[in-house]
Amino acid sequence: MVLVVSEEVREALDAGRAVVALESTIIAHGLPRPRNLRVALELEEEVRRAGAVPATIAVLDGRPQVGLAKDQLERVAGGEGIRKLGRRDLPFAVASAASGATTVSATAQLAALAGIRVFATGGLGGVHREWTVTQDESADLGLLARTRITVVCAGVKSILDVPATLQRLETMGVAVAGYGTDRFPGFYLSDSGHPVDWTLRTPEQVVDVMRAQDTLAAGDTALIVANPVPEEQQLDPELHARVLADALQACEAEGITGQAVTPFLLGYLVRHTDGASLEANLAAVRGNVRLAARIASAWSAR
Ligand code: PSU
Ligand code: MN
User: Looking at residue 1, what is its pLDDT?
Assistant: First the structure.
């Protein structure tokens, strides 16, 4: 197999111990340097502290790596020659020995291939505003409709059309639950303003649903566990609304399209909120990583 699984991750999987997959696009293209490397290391540490093994995923020199050594993490965070790889980019990267950070779609696919069931990220990609003109919908959604994995996230990025994204997830049959809330979280915000149909309150309840997914065998779909950023750590909703409107305008004015849209909007928010959006983003990711580790532990103890 083309996959390179680190020794630590391989041993944990073989022994049935808890493993949490982590994506690398947030590190290489979603967070400002040099803070991104510190965050990457800190997130792995959070997983370990919660009793699970972190498996950060990226492609280096054409090899999909599951579990990165420190120098490999440094390479990803350094960004030199590190592309953004969605699901469809993986064969190109492998065939041309390229290097890149993996998005949710590529990470979830490689994690599932390695036998990892639980995955943590910040906010999922989804249907962009202006979809009727651009048809811009993240490949994250299609992949989650075809992959049996549990993704812990703070909802979908608030730069997106959230109700349209929720509708797409419903249409594609992807299971969505609020964690400890009946509201769908809003990434930088605790509440996107939209409800969810199901609420789960403990890692054990999440595991019960995962087990039920397996017994129903009704197509390999994901389970999205939408975990809100604590209210006291969210971005001020008024600031968020104002700066996001400017960001969307700037994106259009500068003609940004395709894979560059999400990094552009996230970067714009960081610069124009004096870093407050970055703190909210990090608080969300930290909470997700910790919860994912607890779910992975409950899953391995089942
Ligand atoms: N979550 C974050 N920051 C990010 C991302 C998620 O907090 O940068 C990344 C994920 O890798 C996700 C990607 O898959 O953004 C979506 O990109 P696109 O909209 O181009 O599919
Ligand atoms: Mn896109």
Answer: 67
